[in-house]
TrEMBL record:
Keywords: Heme, Iron, Metal-binding. It holds the Pfam family Cytochrome_CBB3. This is Cytochrome c. It comes from Ferrovum myxofaciens. One of its GO terms (molecular function) is heme binding. Residues 69-158 form the Cytochrome c domain. It comes from the Bacteria.
Amino acid sequence: MLKVMASGVVLTLVVVLSGAYVLVQSGLIPANADAKPGGLETWMAHTSLKATLRHDAPKEQNPVALTDKNLMAGVYLFAQNCAVCHGTAKGVAPASPIAKGLYQKPPQLAIDGVEDDPEGYSFWKIKHGIRLTGMPSFRDSLSDRQIWTLALFLKHMDQLPPAVQQTWVHVHNWPVL
């Protein structure tokens, strides 16, 4: 009885894996960036990202102090590295050609902000990127301090001091200057 049940489980796994292989090899699962993702793909990506952030994102407090100088540095880093995809203080008006062509559509952070996310989550996303999206890893481009400075700006971008806000509203997302 146990042998028959084990054989059934193995046979089921072989059929499921073979079916998945044939489905992937058939081209029926779109790989193009302008195709709408399926429900399973969306669920897997979101679930994996949430679990990874819970497990791997830094839990410690941001080592970059909340000062006008550091927030201003965050605005400049955002303008140089992020605005082309994630927009400006104006939000989606207008999205850059790069942002328009990306899959998944990058959040326009002035509208879809991350102020309620722990800074460690923003740090992890910037440092490591997000697989199967257009979000690159900045591990080799920015120092940890610069990444923490960006995370500080993102956490406080909806309540900036006047001088920093004035600089933020003048950031352009296209062309990159």
